[in-house]
Amino acid sequence: SEMGDAVEVLPPQQRIDETWYQGTADAIYQNIYSLERENVDQVLILAGDHIYKMDYGRMIRAHRERGADATVGCIPVPLAEVRHFGIMQTAADDRVVNFVEKPKTADPMPGDPHHALGSMGIYVFNAQLLFEQLCRDAAAPGSAHDFGKNIIPHMIEAGQKVFAHRFRDENRKAIPYWRDVGTLDAYYQANMDLISVEPV
Q1: How many CB atoms lie within 10 A of CB 174?
Q2: The pTM is what?
Q3: Residues of the chain with pLDDT > 90: what percent?
Q4: How far apart are CA 25 and CA 164, in angstroms?
């Protein structure tokens, strides 16, 4: 705390609504009071069930330098696996022009016929805009209250500046390592990866 840093653990709660978290955006919305009182310019949102090594400072700097409203961390995803990811198309300057959550099929990335550009579930938002989007989405009938299904697509449609940020693995191994450990099998495999003789 002497350096201006702190970790605050917020257990799941029903502070704003009578329901538990309905989606990724609703989880942030129901804790919006904690973010608002910090009076910050940007908010970094991460998934809690992913294993990787990344310099978030690089992503935040890119967000600021581009004058972005939102920045989405992304990785190349094999076309056979697009149904598990939010898939985006970008312009030459990495501005996101289309975002579809877990489509059945997707167009490949330019220059790579075997991969599409997938969201890592890592976001940087300008704080005030994030709060506005969360409140708008909370009042939207039929919304899944999800960043990939609702917030990001709405921002793109509204003409806000959403950019993709390519994942750079700080492990510096031959193959970048990023794993979603949202299932028991994936969690077990990640543990095996970490205890191998040459951990990936």
Answers
A1: 6
A2: 0.88
A3: 66
A4: 19
